[in-house]
Structures are given as structure tokens and as C-alpha cells.
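Duplicate of #3305? Posting structure anyway:
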């Protein structure tokens, strides 16, 4: 599965292209709206490694990587943020849903592992794409294994490319 780097950059970039402009004009140019919130939502699914470390029971890529949890989580986050930011629940729900779904999308197209329990609790089967885009990261080999080099280079290139597109897009908008 991709590292937090690819997930964070994807969330950040999505926030630049999705209709957050309307949100920003209503609640101001606050960095936590444009940077922190998209990044946190885009990486949130992988917080399931915490109960796995504590209990030793396998949680990773289970519940938090399911479509049901994605919907419920987005509904709750959207509700909380609409209350805090005094902004449209529908827009915040949809925006959170897209950001959270970006995580599942990246994981789905990653090599290695069993995949995700996408349709939990209806089935505990794991799903992943037969065609992978992201190379696998072998966590079991420790932090400093040379096999991490390929995913590191791939994700860094992916991130630089995405951020370059955002920089180009913002430059074009400012010049108009
Ligand atoms: Zn994940």
C-alpha cells in the first residue's frame, strides 16, 4: 500500500481541484481548511495500524478501508465540520467522501498484500485491482530495507508530478 506521502499529496492536490474555492471564500483562507483537513482525511484510513499494534489483532486494511466506513466516517466528519465552520453539510460531506475515497483508490491499485475489505461487513473478502500502479512496500522487512527504494522513488516522482501540476494550475489562475 502507498505510504502516507502519496496519500497526503493526493489529498492536498484533490483539495486544490475540487470545489473548495467556494468553501474558502465563505470561511476564509485558513490553512487548516486547505492543507491540514484534506491531508488528514486522505491518510485517516491507515490509522487502523494503531489498534493492530496495541492488540496484535489484524485490523489493517479492514474496517477503515471499507466503503461502508467511508460513507459513515464522511457523514460524521461532514456534520462536525459543518457545525464548526458554519458551512454546507452537503458540500463538506461530499468533499470528505472524495478525499477519503482517494485513499481507497490508491490502495486498490497497489501491488502486494491481500488488498482491502472493501465490502465489510457484508463480506470479509479482500479486494484489490489485478493491475497495480504503485509498487508494494514490504513493512515486514523493517524500516531500512533496500527494497523500499523502488516505492520511495516511485512515490516521490508521483508527488513531485502532482505538485507541479498544482503549481502550474495556480500560476495560470493567478495570471488570468
Ligand atoms: Zn490504506
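Output from current build:
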Amino acid at each position: 500500500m502507498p505510504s502516507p506521502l502519496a496519500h497526503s499529496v493526493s489529498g492536498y492536490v484533490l483539495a486544490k481541484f475540487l470545489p473548495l474555492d467556494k468553501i474558502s471564500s465563505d470561511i476564509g483562507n485558513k490553512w487548516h481548511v486547505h492543507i491540514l483537513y484534506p491531508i488528514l482525511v486522505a491518510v485517516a484510513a491507515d490509522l487502523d495500524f494503531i489498534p493492530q499494534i496495541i492488540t496484535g489483532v489484524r485490523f489493517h486494511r479492514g474496517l477503515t478501508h471499507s466503503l461502508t466506513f467511508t460513507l459513515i466516517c464522511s457523514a460524521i466528519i461532514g456534520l462536525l465540520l459543518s457545525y464548526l465552520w458554519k458551512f454546507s453539510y452537503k458540500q463538506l460531506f461530499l468533499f470528505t467522501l472524495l478525499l477519503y475515497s482517494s485513499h481507497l483508490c490508491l490502495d486498490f491499485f497497489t501491488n502486494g498484500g491481500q488488498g482491502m475489505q472493501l465490502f465489510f461487513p457484508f463480506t470479509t473478502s479482500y479486494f484489490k485491482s489485478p493491475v497495480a500502479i504503485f509498487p508494494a512496500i514490504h513493512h515486514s522487512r523493517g524500516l531500512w530495507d533496500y527494497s523500499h527504494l523502488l516505492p520511495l522513488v516511485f512515490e516521490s516522482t508521483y508527488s513531485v508530478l502532482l505538485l507541479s501540476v498544482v503549481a502550474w494550475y495556480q500560476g495560470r489562475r493567478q495570471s488570468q
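Confirmed duplicate; merging threads. The mean pLDDT is 88. The helical segments are 4-17, 20-27, 31-43, 49-55, 67-85, 89-108, 149-175.
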